[in-house]
Amino acid sequence: MQSAAAIEAVFRGARARVLATTIRVTNGDFDLAEEAVQDAFAAALARWPTEGTPDEPRGLAGLGRTQQGDRRDPRRVKLRELVAAEPQGDHAAPAELVAVPDDRLRLIYTCCHPALATEAQLALTLRTLGGLTTEEIARAFLTSPVTMAQRLVRAKSKIKEAKIPYEVPEASQLAERTGAVMSVVYLIFNEGYATTAGDAWIRRDLCREAIRLGRLVAELTGDPEAHGLVALMLLHDARRDARTDDHGDLVLLEDQDRTRWDRAQITEALALVPIALRGGPGRTACRRRSPRSTPPHPGPARPTGRRSRRCSTSWSAANPRRSSRSTARSRFAMWQGPEAGLPLVEQLAGELAGYHLWHATKADLLRRLGRHREAATAYRAALARVGSEPERRFLESRLAEVGAVR
Question: What value does the mean pLDDT take over residues 23-43?
Answer without folding.
Answer: 78
